Amino acid sequence: MGGRNQTQVVEFVFLGFSSIPNSHIYFFLPFLTIYLVTVLGNLMIFTLIQLDSSLRTPMYYFLSHLSFLDICISSVTVPKILVNFLRQRQTISYNQCMAQMFFLISFTGTEAGVLAIMAYDRYAAICKPLHYSRLMSPKVCTILALASWIWGALDSALHTALSTTLSFCGVNQIPHILCDVPPLIRIACNDAHINEMTVSIASYFVAGGPFLFIILSYSLILSSVLKMASAGKRKAFSTCASHLIVVVIYYGNALVNYNRSSAGDSPENSTWVSIMYCIVAPMLNPLIYSLRNKEVKGALKKVVRSQKTSTHHHATS
Fold first, then answer.
1. Contact at 8 Å (CB) between 214 and 116?
2. What b-and-e string marks burial along 52-82, b requiring 16 or more CB atoms within 10 Å of the CB?
């Protein structure tokens, strides 16, 4: 790929799987399975919340956003990886790379906002039960959800716009399996100081802001729960447990993904961290919420029962 600026780099080559010979043979089926489980699991939760009137509460409203986001995050990355396995060419065009990066950052940034709102919802339910219906009214929920999506999109637009200013001087090999800001900065040949600074500031502000808010919410929840009777404590903790597990998985992976030193980090490390962050984590969320949640299990049983009844009715009529 000759040339002296980024317009000459019409496609990038991913090096993430280059150290594994015949990676397409070993990884195609596992990746396809994970993708199908992710989409079907999150789609099941999203559909249940729409169908079952007992799940029309703020907590499940935001869980439906979380499920939709997990489908989106997975769909931005995995289909391209699967297509490349089939073609046995790990490439992506320049424009596709920018689009993948924009949507990936947008959806993961929105997810940080949604997780913070879910923590606020638990705080309102446990610490301010008498004011809950006012604090989490349908109008407030809609505004908060919209704010999260705008929050993610604005952050992403800034990173993507800055990334289009990078020059690659003919270097088109990305030490990664997807398009993201840190690996593109690593192969840029012009001064990427502003880009690096923006990544640092954004990771503290866009991800760190919601994280601090989650910690504050749970500190207030904990002090409130400790004053309750033991039966109330159990119920309060059980409503928070699923959310806390998802928060730990999301922020644990995000922290490792965006706060590694760019120097000396191998493509293999980047690959495995990104597989956890963008591919495995979205699959785990519906499992965590459906396995630990009585209401979701109850709604699923109801849907299955009604399906059986309608099938039996059709068969006998």
1. yes
2. beebebbbbbbbbbbbbbbbbbbbbbbebbb
Q: Distance (Å, rounded) from C-alpha 238 to C-alpha 234?
A: 6
Cβ atoms within 10 A of the Cβ of 174, count? 25
Residue 312 domain-assigned (yes or no): no
In this predicted structure, the answer to whether residue 96 has a pLDDT above a threshold of 80 is yes
Assigned domain for 315 exists? no
CATH number of the domain encompassing residue 93: 1.20.1070.10
- 7-61: pLDDT as tens digits: 468 889 998 888 777 777 888 999 999 999 999 999 988 998 888 878 888 989 9
Burial call 199-210: b when 16+ CB within 10 Å, e when fewer: beebbeebbbeb
Structural domain containing residue 263: 7-290
The total domain count for the chain is 1
Would you say 9 and 170 are in contact if contact means Cβ atoms under 8 Å apart?
yes
Contact of 1 with 8, CB cutoff 8 Å: yes
Reported pTM: 0.86
* H helices, E strands: number in the chain: 12, 3
168, containing H or E segment: none
Residue-level pLDDT at 6: 42
Percent of the chain with pLDDT over 70: 89
Spatial distance between the Cα atoms of 85 and 72, rounded to a whole number of angstroms? 20
The label of the residue with tokens 């439906």 reads: 64
